[in-house]
Amino acid sequence: MTTEEKMHLITRNCQEVLTEVDLKSLIESGKPINHYIGFEISGLVHLGTGLMSMGKIADFLKAGMKCKIFLADFHTYLNNKLGGNWEDIRWASVHYFKQALIASLKCFDIDESQVEFISGKKLYEENPIHWETFMRVGKHITLSRNLRSISIMGKKQGTDVDMATLFYPPLQVADIFTMNVNLAHAGIDQRKAHVVAREVGPAVAGYKPVAVHQNLIAGLTGPEPGTNDAESLKMSKSKPNSAIFVHDTPDEIREKIKKAYGPPKEIEFNPLLNWVKILVFWGEETGEFKVERLEKFGGNVVYTKYADVVADYANEKLFPTDLKNGLAEWLIKKLEPARKYFEIKENSQALIRMKKLLG
RNA sequence: CCAGUGGUGGCCGAACGGUUAGGCGAAGGUCUGUAAAACCUUUUUGAGCAGGUUCGACUCCUGCCCACUGGACCA
Prior knowledge:
Strand content: 5-15%
Mean pLDDT: 90
Number of helices: 17
CATH class of the largest domain: Alpha Beta
CATH topology of the largest domain: Rossmann fold
């Protein structure tokens, strides 16, 4: 595989790479590329994690990278998710969250043996140097910089800032170096941590990790009334109808998509088109998207270019309901392996318990 | 540790010694070949904790807990 081919696989369907130049020289160095992505155990696994992140890992594996998935149990605890209950967090990370990620990987035909899972607890126990790295990171971050970085926890500056909150960003940065990660991967919401990692890296660990950031997928409920910014479009686990989870049933998927925000002709702030673009077409110009509809509405159509979907939608040759139906059926099919995996008794029971934990 | 202020339903937020604040959010409905918006309906009493006063306390009193602000201590 050529460097260009690798570059394409690694960077496609991403919002940002810090930096392409660094990535290219990393590839050309011939050194193994050690990837990592970390997740808080904070809720059900939605498409942002299950399809975007795991799909990216599929690309990374094809490019010959070593992929590591970090189950950030301590981060979850520090961020007071799952009620800040350590036992619940530990249970959920192994019995629910990891299983949901394995389920998601199956949607890309990847076996769990092809990636490495590691929990925070295990990482810290096995690597006493982590504590030292953590302190070194602290030596290179100012309080104000750290405070600005807590947005990676979904927190706004000036609210609920306890000491644990302040530990979180440097802990995440230290994780990267403890795991010898040279390619850190996350949604764009985590960029502040990765930028800090790149800035302190040379002093703390003698290198700058490359950072690859993906788009956050839009929430189905659309923008808040009166706003049209990217933030209010984001999919959120706390808005029940804004997110689809990897183990949702076909009926749940159809129901949620049906309720989705779908303004005709609107191609800018439109979660449905956003999903078709980054999930179905995976950020590429060409692909395949089927829409089945009655003859009176134009009959079935197969799109092979994303631009054609946009064009038809813009001049109302593609009606929102038809776009919704096509998308729902695509998702149902794509997520089938995940649903099947969650039919296994232990997993379905874990899901029930997880939902209970979340109230 | 001391003082002041405050802790109200998923969230925000008033009033009041005794009769449902209100808003947001959420759910259902109407209207559109979807959704959104708009309109209609629903979300049937909640007060940091423990006591006390009272015919009756979210409202008064005592103690405790927590938060914010200021102060004290600083070997």
